[in-house]
Every structure is written in structure tokens, then in C-alpha cells.
């Protein structure tokens, strides 16, 4: 959103201009960080009803941060100053929410704040992992390399997640169509056909009675079933918001046959990738373990990494600490032990991360390859069974006449 303002600077000169921000409060804060005394500020845009932005469209996606990190890394390699980088990107990015964040970061940098501290003020855009990586780059004087590591890491993470999400779109669509068709058949088609059978007075086969009874149940009580499903979904959503509930659901994710193996590989790839990226960027081992546990996205593995960090603080090696937990496979323990003995732990973990990334992609492809034909067959069998259960008795009735 564009705002017009009038203000007085430190030299008592009156200034006018415009500023892009998410809200008037954000615009005021940004101007005050420039040491301006605001005399008036108002929206500089007149919007039609079709131009108003919904909160959904103000979201900063992973893809936005991936592209941003690559641009920052490229500009740092070109020896462009940090302040100029964030000013330039704030004016160039299409996402207005991200542009506002970058503008505020640039204002903080102009006020003397370190990059990591400026980024930390925007946790919705930059995770704790991201901020700590930048802090490590500032301390080591290797910011360009750090943003390069971040860009590569986010690229890999985005590729795996988008691959999994895109691959599951078609199976989810087929399942929804299947459920929709079955619901329509049971509530609209079957009741009309079954009425003909019931009026005929002829004996009805058992399987036809079963279908008619199921149809009658959904016609009379379908709304209650729907409400129950909605209530159950809401309960699970609320349960997932609590620490205890999230822990239960996260452990359930990795316990489900086959799908659980996919989740395990996804979390293990994330652990190896996060840990290796932070080690190669100069982050201390304990801090890297703590941050990886915070961003892995599963309570079970977060608990494991927390315990590993405590053991390492107590003098244990990383491999020995990992070996105490059944959630960590033997191959990862062995690879970490080799990395510790050779002093190449970061590179070993990078290799392990690539291995698990390939495993995730292959598992997703296999799962989708199985789900697609199974869902199509089930859809055909379900509709065919329902129709056969009511149409066959009708044909018998017609033959008897």
C-alpha cells in the first residue's frame, strides 16, 4: 500500500514523499527509523472493490524466499553493499508483503543494525535457521558464501516439497471425485431407483437391501455424518495446535505403514541438510543441533535432536548420541561417525542429505504410481457395484413381466 507523508527531518526541513508499506502503522515506524517527525500521512491509493487485497495474497511463500536468497547471494558476490541490496530488492520484488519487509530491513541497516538482527524482526519471512546462518556469515566475514549456502539449501528444500505436493494433487483430486460421485449416487440416484423395486413387491437380494439401506441412511442422516466429519476435522486441527497434540500427530505420521517411511526420509533429509549447511557456514555444533531441532517440523525428531544436543554438551560424540535413538537409522549414525573421524562431517552430511532427497522423490513417485490406478479401479468398482445392486433386480423384474 502506498502512503503520502509530510515530515520534518533532523535539520528542521520539511519533506514530502511516498512510502510503500503494509499498513499505516508500518509506514510510520519506517519513517521514524529514518529520524523523521511526521506531520501528516495518508493513503496515496484509491482502490476499487476489485483491488483490495485479502490477507491470503499477502503471504510470503517459500518460493519468494528462495528467489530472494539467490538474488542476495548474486549481489553480494558482485560486491554490492548490504543496504543497497535490500533497497534495490525492495523496489523490484512483486510480492508487496516481501517488499515491505525488505524496506524495513533496509531502514534497520541504515540505522546501524546488523543484517541478522534486522532479519530476525520478521520471523514470518525468515526462520530461525535463516537468521542464525546469516549471523554466522557476519561473524566469519563470509556473507556472500552464506547466502549462497542458503540459496542452495532453500532450492533443495523447495524442490523436494514442491515435488511431493504436486505429485499428490492428482490422487487427492481422484479421491474427492470418488467420494463426491458415491455421495451423489447414494443420495440422489439410488433412492429413485430403489423406490421402483420396493413398489414391485418382488423379493430383493441381500446385496441390494444393503445398498438401499445405506442409501436410506445417508438420505436421512447424511447431514449428521457431515457435521460429525467437520467436527472431527476441527478437533484434529485444534489438537495439532497444542504441544501434546502435535507430538501425538507427529509420531502418528511416522508410524503409518509406507507413508510413515516417506515422512521419515523427508525429516532425515531435512536434518542432514540443515545440519550440514550450518556446520559448513561456521555455526557451532550445539547451536546447529538446537536450531535443526527447532526447524525440522516434527516433534518426535525435535525431541531426539534436543536429547542429542544435551548428550554432546555432556561430552558424547554426535554419532554415539544419535545411536541411542531408534528414530535415527544405522546408516546415518555410521556416516556421521565417519565424518567425525575424518573431520569432514559437513561434507558427509551433505552427501547424506542428497541421498535422502533422492529417496523422498523416488518414494513419492512410487506412491503416486500406485495410488492413481488403485483410485481409478476403486471408483469404477464402487459406482459399478452400486448400479449393479439396483439395476439387476430391475432387469429381473422386467424379464418376469
Could you give a quick summary of the protein structure above?
The chain is mainly alpha-helical and 401 residues long.
Describe this protein's structure:
This protein has 15 helices and three strands. With 401 residues, the chain is mostly helical. It has a three-stranded antiparallel sheet. Helix 2 crosses helix 3, helix 2 runs antiparallel to helix 7 and helix 10 runs antiparallel to helix 15. The chain folds into three domains: 47 residues, Ubiquitin-like (UB roll); 96 residues, Type II secretion system (T2SS), domain F (Receptor-associated Protein, Up-down Bundle); 238 residues, Type II secretion system (T2SS), domain F (Receptor-associated Protein, Up-down Bundle). Helices cover 75% and strands 5% of the residues. It is extended, with a radius of gyration of 29 Å. About 3% of the residues have low confidence. 30% of the residues are buried.
Question: Which properties best describe this structure?
Answer:
mainly alpha, Ubiquitin-like (UB roll), Receptor-associated Protein, 15 helices, extended
SSE string, helices as H and strands as E? EEHEHHHHHHHHHHHHHH
Oligomer: single chain
Major beta sheet, specifics? Answer: 3 strands, antiparallel
Mean pLDDT: 80
SSE layout and pairing:
Blueprint: E1 2-8, E2 14-20, H1 24-33, E3 37-43, H2 62-77, H3 82-92, H4 96-110, H5 115-120, H6 128-140, H7 143-200, H8 206-241, H9 243-253, H10 259-280, H11 285-295, H12 299-313, H13 318-323, H14 330-342, H15 345-400
Antiparallel strand pairs: 1-2, 1-3
Helix pairs in contact: 2-3, 2-7, 3-4, 6-7, 7-8, 7-10, 7-15, 8-9, 8-15, 10-11, 10-15, 11-12, 14-15
Amino acid at each position: 500500500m502506498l502512503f503520502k507523508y509530510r515530515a520534518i527531518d533532523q535539520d528542521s526541513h520539511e519533506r514530502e514523499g511516498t512510502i510503500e508499506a503494509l499498513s499505516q502503522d508500518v509506514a510510520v515506524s519506517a519513517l521514524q527509523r529514518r529520524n523523521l517527525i511526521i506531520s501528516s500521512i495518508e493513503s496515496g491509493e484509491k482502490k476499487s472493490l476489485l483491488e483490495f487485497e485479502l490477507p491470503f495474497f499477502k503471504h510470503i511463500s517459500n518460493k519468494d524466499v528462495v528467489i530472494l536468497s539467490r538474488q542476495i547471494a548474486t549481489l553480494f558476490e558482485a560486491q554490492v553493499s548490504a543496504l543497497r541490496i535490500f533497497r534495490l530488492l525492495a523496489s523490484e520484488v512483486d510480492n508487496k508483503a516481501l517488499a515491505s519487509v525488505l524496506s524495513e530491513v533496509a531502514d534497520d541497516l541504515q540505522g546501524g543494525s546488523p543484517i541478522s538482527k534486522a532479519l530476525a524482526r520478521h520471523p514470518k519471512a525468515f526462520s530461525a535457521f535463516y537468521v542464525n546462518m546469516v549471523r554466522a556469515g557476519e561473524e566469519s566475514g563470509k556473507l556472500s558464501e552464506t547466502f549462497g549456502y542458503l540459496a542452495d539449501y532453500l532450492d533443495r528444500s523447495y524442490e523436494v516439497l514442491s515435488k511431493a505436493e504436486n505429485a499428490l494433487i492428482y490422487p487427492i483430486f481422484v479421491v474427492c471425485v470418488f467420494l463426491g460421485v458415491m455421495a451423489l449416487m447414494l443420495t440422489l440416484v439410488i433412492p429413485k431407483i430403489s423406490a421402483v423395486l420396493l413398489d414391485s413387491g418382488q423379493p430383493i437380494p441381500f446385496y441390494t437391501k444393503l445398498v438401499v439401506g445405506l442409501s436410506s441412511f445417508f438420505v436421512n442422516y447424511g447431514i449428521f455424518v457431515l457435521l460429525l466429519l467437520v467436527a472431527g476435522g476441527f478437533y484434529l486441527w485444534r489438537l495439532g495446535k497444542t504441544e501434546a497434540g502435535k507430538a501425538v500427530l507427529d509420531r502418528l505420521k511416522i508410524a503409518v505403514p509406507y507413508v510413515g517411511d516417506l515422512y521419515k526420509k523427508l525429516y532425515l533429509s531435512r536434518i542432514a541438510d540443515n545440519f550440514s549447511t550450518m556446520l559448513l557456514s561456521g555455526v557451532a555444533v550445539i547451536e546447529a543441533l538446537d536450531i535443526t531441532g527447532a526447524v525440522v517440523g516434527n516433534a518426535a525428531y525435535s525431541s531426539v535432536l534436543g536429547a542429542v544436543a544435551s548428550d554432546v554438551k555432556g561430552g558424547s560424540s554426535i554419532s554415539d548420541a544419535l545411536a541411542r535413538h531408534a528414530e535415527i537409522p544405522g546408516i546415518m549414525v555410521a556416516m556421521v561417525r565417519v565424518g567425525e573421524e575424518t573431520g569432514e562431517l559437513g561434507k558427509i552430511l551433505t552427501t547424506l542429505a542428497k541421498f535422502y532427497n533422492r529417496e523422498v522423490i523416488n518414494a513419492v513417485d512410487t506412491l503416486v504410481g500406485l495410488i492413481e490406478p488403485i483410485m481409478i479401479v476403486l471408483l469404477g468398482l464402487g459406482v459399478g457395484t452400486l448400479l449393479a445392486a439396483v439395476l439387476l433386480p430391475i432387469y429381473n423384474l422386467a424379464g418376469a413381466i
